[in-house]
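<instruction>
Derive structure tokens from the sequence
<entry> Chain with its tokenised backbone below:
===
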Amino acid sequence: MRSLVDLLVARAASHPARGFRFVDDDTVLSYRELDRDARRIASVLAERNIAPGARVALAYPAGLDFVRAFWGCIYAGVIAVPVPAPHPARLARTLPRLRAIVTDCTPSAVLTTAALATRVPELGDVITTDDATGDPMRQPHDSPSDAIALLQYTSGSTRSPRGVVLDHANILHNLGLLRAFHLDQHDMVMAHWLPLYHDMGLIRGMLSPVHMGADCVMLSAEKFVERPARWLAAVTSHKATTIGAPNFGFELCTRKISDAELATLDLSSLRLVFSSAEPVRKGTIDRFLARFGLDPTVFRPAYGLAEATVAVAGELSHYTTHAVSASALRDGRIESATSDDRYDLVSCGAPLGDMEVAIIDGNQRAAPDRVGEIWVRGGSVARGYWGQTDPIFGAELGGTGPFLRTGDLGWCDADGGLAIVGRMKDAIIIRGQTFYPQDLEAAVESVPLVRAGCTAAFAIETPDGEAAVIVAEIDVVDWPASVAAIRAAISEQLGLALAAIVAVERGTLPKTASGKVQRALTRTQYERGELSALQTWTHPPRDQ
């Protein structure tokens, strides 16, 4: 199998009745039907003189139309560029990302639905695919393995989104790694809400089931966030065997699913629960497993990034943690924890397949007890960013390479298990010690009045050096009590004093399309006074 074309053609023949279900509207799409619809869309692209190798943006609301359009692009030999569909009622917030991507990669067309094209005329000249009923393309384009299949735009959590260039070989290599991670479940039923324009939703959520001949049950991220029980209800109804999400997704389930909803759920079919895309927290895992009565062996943390297609490392048997000294970790060292100085690092498992991971301190491999930057090498690593030459893809280590410099900080245990510590660009350095924003955010979100997954921690320069700031979506019904609780949580768990706490309006904290908090943008808005602040506390006090 040398291309994704071969993959779907084979799957339509071997598992014609399996495929996709979108539970929001209960629509279904078998692999046989997907093969037919992809051929029809490929014919439409050919009729519009969009040649193989051209770029085509896919701007779809959650649903099966995206799945059809993506495979239509693959069959036509054009480069698919998934983008978040602008929301008709929130264009000021959702349209700029699409415009930035279109400016960056200059697609030949924007594919979408007829309904969205009517409601969002700002999309410009579009091709609607939900009304494609012509003759199917008889022979899909014969794409070589090194042909570009996809531009996967990064989430933009630390910088402007950039288009990761993935060829057919990259994607098939990563799907092979995921097959082993998913226990080669031939009867796998995936249930997920991850957006299909995000690498985790697209590769793990949509492409991996096709590779395995499995069923995939999907719902929209919007419906999940609105009521997390919908996700686990889909698991119950369709006897899903596999689910996955970033850490905040499991935290939402633990916090927001009521006892009455819990009583209706049956998760006994689950054999694999994976977590990645942001640091995995032991507290979240333990609360989720306990709340829903799951065996700890089903939970498998993983690590990956769009620049390596999606998956790099994964825990294949059961999740493990390392109790280390929190104070030593702030100095970049790994030491055993003590009773009053403890931090639990979660292992994301060893590198999958032939992927290679190196922990780098400076320009050499880090000592076994040191934290360093994670470098990655293997067949899943992309060729680079669209239209850019970036040295992070060409790092050399002792005369070998090229390695991908991920910008993530981590540590490997004696068995090769990778633990993620934080992002280099996000590190907060105060009085010579390194703190990681996710730790401050977790401490803040232990306060009941703070919304889960809606906190940003960052550093600002003050006359006395760097100081930490918290911006969060907080219920301000008792603002003094909220401030006191947040300051106490940060002080007790991290030994830090804060320079400021800002409560912002619900739904206004800057986030990426995949739900990651944009700390750098939040800091910029804070410094410019552009946040939708409901209340602000500063130390020392300042005029409001």
The two ends are 63 Å apart (CA to CA). The first strand starts at residue 19 and ends at 22. The mean pLDDT is 92.
